[in-house]
Amino acid sequence: MQLYLNTSSPYARVVRVCLYEKELMERTELCWCDPWAADSELLKITPLSRIPTLVTEGGEVLTESLLIAHYLDAVGEGAKLLPADGLADTLALAGLGQGLMEAAFNVVIGRKHGGPDVDESLLGSRRLKAIERTLACWPVIPSAR
Fold it and tell me: What sequence ranges are listed for the domain GST N-terminal (predicted)?
């Protein structure tokens, strides 16, 4: 397998943890790349040019960290990443983690390309408030019980 990633992607870190947990790291070539580059090797693999991208042993191209994690859970060794027991609680916590990661990532990207004033915009403010609310309830697992 080949994993296309860069050093700053929190999404790629999620996939790397899954590779270790599922004992698949030795079977995976890490392909470091710049997803922002117009001549990126990544563009030859996927038109999305998104990190992470996994090319499976069968040649399928998978994007999106949680979808890649689901695939690795199915093909790897060891304990399940998504146990049947407590699945809803695990997914609820994973959803909070994913949302927190997305909000923080988008704050960083927004500031990089729009400057610090982007935080004052409606979207920037919404992201910051989402981060604050999520951190305030962490690590409480949302449950309807």
Answer: 1-80
28 DSSP β-pair partners: none
Distance separating alpha carbons of residues 49 and 84, to the nearest angstrom: 33
Q: Where are the beta strands (DSSP E) in the chain?
A: 2-5, 29-32, 53-55, 61-63
Q: State which residues form the domain around 102.
A: 87-137
Distances (CA, A) of 32 to 46, 47, 61: 15, 17, 16
pTM: 0.82
Mean pLDDT by 10 residues, the chain (145 residues): 94 96 97 88 91 97 95 94 88 89 90 89 91 83 51
* Count of structural domains, the chain: 2
Sign of the dihedral defined by the CA atoms of residues 14, 17, 22, 23, in that order: positive
Of 111, 136, 135, 134, nearest to 123 (Cα)? 111
How far is CA 125 from its chain centroid? 22
Per-residue pLDDT tens digits for 5-41: 999 899 999 999 999 999 999 999 999 999 888 888 8
